[in-house]
TrEMBL record:
It comes from the Eukaryota. The keyword Signal applies. Transmembrane segments: none annotated. This is WSC domain-containing protein. Keywords: Signal. It comes from Aspergillus nanangensis. InterPro entries: DUF1996, WSC_carb-bd. It holds the Pfam family DUF1996. Residues 1-23 form the signal peptide. Residues 361-457 form the WSC domain. The lineage of its organism: Eukaryota, Fungi, Dikarya, Ascomycota, Pezizomycotina.
Length: 471
């Protein structure tokens, strides 16, 4: 993830030059787990009002508790002991003709855990407990007013040739050569009792003098580790499509200002490990690999970790309107909740990333790494075809007398009769097998060095279901 190191070093230069003695560690999160209208904190059990991009443990669902985080089969963030979920609103480009399209995220997110003690206490910083959750910011805000809370959210207009461009509390108004970085800081003072609160905020508070440091208020005396998100967006891909006088990006909740930037944190850490990391990790550069209590997992695991979406609606490609009921509300007065626009409100069946071929007696086995050290998972026969689909591949393997078919690299099909134990699909690297088939862009045909496997099933056909998406 080369982009992370670059973005991180810029962030460090900005954030920590004033006080290099403060320690922190950052958890890199890879491509999102899922992008959909889900928000188990603010709107559990239903489709949420707007689209979020969600990172973290695959236990993520529409209703969440701590046990579900712990049941994650994979994790899009790189610390094994952290099965938390982190989410923010998706970003869209608003075209001149009124259509919208998602702005691609650059990586997933970078989550900073900063050890910033309350200077008026014994200095103890605690890990948030199991079941803890909180929200920072509000989607309704459109106001320029500067408060401690509003200062906790900011935007960086990225230009690697001229770092240090001043940050803003609204979307940058000019083109940013390397995209936009959205930044939000969570409250670090806790009431010490409640894991959540009706508004998901009042059990926590910002320090009294600035959003990211200094003493906690008496109402919220317990200092928790300071959590800060950075999410980069490839807004530069739309540079030649600007029009008019205003910047063309909107958050998924109809906010063209950026003041409604908000973020959600749902704790899924092994709390003892997080506490030990807070107490002992002191790398001045925030390098999580220097943080002994935390175990890292490879990119092939984080990149591949995905949850299947289950709201029956289109959220990507050109859209006539933002998903949900989200007309543009520029403010400066608070935005209103709009309902009744006809957008789906219920949770549907998971939309599978594989092709369901159980009707033809083939079932999905999973996605696994291929050609490691030159060794092929399947070596019976093969076919390369510009019209490849899972159906074409399983038919070929069947005709050749094989019982396992594997798709790779958009257009390759491999056949065989068994898969060695060490090549069997592991937890859930489905995200590594999402290359569009050369014969049908609506289906997936493996990836570079990753093979998507189907197996012949006679009568008793049951696609491998993972991860289980709890409702
Ligand atoms: C709107 O403009 C975009 C960008 O030019 C284009 O791709 C899209 O098809 C247009 N949508 C409609 C409905 O005309």
């Amino acid at each position: 993830m080369p982009s992370f190191s670059k973005q991180a070093s810029l962030a460090l230069a900005f954030l920590f030059s004033a006080n290099p003695s403060l320690a922190f560690f950052k958890v890199p999160c890879s491509t999102p787990l899922v992008i959909q209208r889900a928000d188990p904190i603010v709107q559990p059990g239903t489709a949420s009002n707007h689209v979020h991009t969600i990172m973290g443990g695959s236990g993520f669902g529409f209703t969440m508790d701590y046990d579900m985080t712990q049941a994650s089969q994979c994790n899009s963030c790189s610390a094994v002991e952290d099965k938390s979920n982190y989410w923010v609103a998706a970003l869209y480009f608003h075209a001149q003709n009124g259509s919208f399209i998602q702005v691609p995220q650059n990586g997933g997110a970078l989550i900073y855990y900063e050890q910033r003690p309350d200077p008026t206490t014994d200095g103890k910083i605690v890990a948030p407990p199991a079941g803890f959750r909180m929200v920072a910011g509000t989607p309704f805000s459109r106001s320029d007013e500067v408060t401690i809370e509003s200062s906790a959210r900011s935007f960086a207009c990225l230009n690697y040739d001229a770092p240090g461009t001043p940050q803003t509390n609204h979307f940058p108004k000019t083109k940013c050569p390397n995209g936009i970085r959205v930044q939000i800081y969570f409250p670090s003072c806790w009431d010490g009792k409640n894991l959540d609160s009706p508004d998901h905020k009042s059990h926590v508070a910002y320090p009294t003098q600035t959003y990211d440091n200094g003493p906690c208020p008496a109402t919220h005396p317990v200092r928790i580790v300071s959590i800060f998100y950075e999410i980069n967006w490839h807004t530069e891909q739309f540079d030649d499509m600007w029009y008019g006088d205003d910047q063309p990006f909107v958050f998924s909740f109809g906010d063209p200002t950026g003041h409604g930037l908000h973020a959600d944190f749902l704790n899924g850490w092994d709390v003892d490990v997080l506490q030990e990391a807070i107490d002992t990790c002191d790398d001045g550069g925030g390098d999580i690999r220097e943080c002994g209590p935390i175990t890292m997992q490879p990119d092939s695991m984080t990149d591949g970790c995905m949850v299947e979406p289950s709201i029956d609606e289109k959220i990507d490609g050109w859209l006539d309107a933002l998903p949900g009921c989200n007309p543009i509300q520029p403010g400066p007065e608070d935005a209103k909740v709009i309902t009744g626009c006809g957008a789906p409100t219920t949770i549907g069946d998971p939309q599978h990333y594989y092709t369901d071929l159980t009707g033809q007696n083939w079932e999905w086995m999973g996605c696994t790494i291929d050609n490691a050290g030159g060794k092929r998972v399947l070596s019976g026969s093969m076919l390369k075809d510009g019209g490849m689909t899972p159906d074409m591949c399983t038919k070929k393997c069947e005709a050749d007398g094989f019982s396992i078919a594997g798709l790779e690299n958009a257009l390759e099909c491999y056949c065989g009769n068994d898969v060695a134990a060490d090549s069997m699909p592991k937890t859930n690297p489905m995200g590594n097998c999402l290359m569009k088939c050369s014969g049908d862009a609506g289906q997936n045909c493996g990836g570079y060095g990753f093979i998507g496997l189907y197996k012949k099933c006679d009568g008793d056909c049951k696609n491998l279901q993972y991860p289980v998406v709890p409702h």
